[in-house]
């Protein structure tokens, strides 16, 4: 039983890694500079950090084998957005709060077998939901 769980988890991780590689290719094709992938902190994780001109892009990648009743981006709920925003604030701290705009984007990847059937890039897909950090971390300009 434990072995089966490990196999499913490994397949899920491989799917996510493939989606992230495809997303990096798309972002580069669109002219973004990919700065880092899989940025992790105790506050959360960001799949891709990229830069488009003077804007930092914190990108969440959602990959699915096939489209069901909803878009993959719908899986980025409130708690996931909050974890991404916390990780983004940590990233901004680490790089010294450069004078850049920032936004939260989503790349959706849908595969059927080994074939990519849909890949979409949603710029500014969600806004940071701030409670206590509102005055310290404005969402538009640092």
Structure report:
The chain has two helices and five strands; from the N terminus they run H-E-E-E-H-E-E. The chain is globular, with a radius of gyration of 16 Å. The longest helix has 28 residues, at 2-29. It is an alpha+beta fold and 142 residues long. A five-stranded mixed sheet has the order 1-2-3-4-5. The chain has one domain (2-126): Trna Endonuclease, Chain: A, domain 1 (3-Layer(aba) Sandwich). A hairpin with a 2-residue loop joins strand 2 and strand 3.
Secondary-structure topology with pairs:
Layout: H1 2-29, E1 33-41, E2 44-52, E3 55-64, H2 78-94, E4 101-112, E5 115-126
Parallel strand pairs: 3-4
Antiparallel strand pairs: 1-2, 2-3, 4-5
Query: In DSSP terms, counting alpha (H) and pi (I) runs of 4 or more, how many helices?
Result: 2
What kind of assembly state do the chains in view correspond to?
single chain
| Approximate strand percentage | 35-45%
User: Overall pLDDT, averaged?
Assistant: 84
**Strand segment tally:** 5
What labels describe this entry?
142 residues, alpha+beta, Trna Endonuclease, Chain: A, domain 1, five-stranded mixed β-sheet, 2 helices, disordered C terminus
In short:
The protein has 142 residues and is an alpha+beta fold. It has helices spanning 2-29, 78-94, and strands spanning 33-41, 44-52, 55-64, 101-112, 115-126. Residues 132-142 have low confidence and may be disordered.
């Amino acid at each position: 039983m434990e072995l089966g769980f490990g196999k499913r988890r490994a397949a899920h991780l491989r799917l996510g890694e493939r989606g992230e590689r495809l997303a990096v290719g798309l972002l580069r094709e669109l002219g973004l500079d990919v700065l880092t992938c899989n940025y992790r902190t105790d506050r959360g994780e960001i799949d891709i950090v990229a830069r488009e001109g003077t804007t930092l892009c914190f990108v969440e990648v959602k990959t699915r084998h096939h489209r069901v009743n909803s878009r993959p981006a719908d899986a980025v709920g409130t708690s996931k957005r909050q974890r991404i925003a916390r990780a983004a604030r940590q990233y901004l701290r680490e790089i010294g709060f450069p004078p850049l705009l920032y936004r939260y984007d989503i790349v959706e990847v849908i595969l059927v077998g080994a074939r990519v059937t849909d890949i979409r890039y949603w710029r500014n897909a969600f806004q940071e939901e701030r409670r206590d950090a509102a005055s310290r971390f404005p969402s538009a300009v640092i």
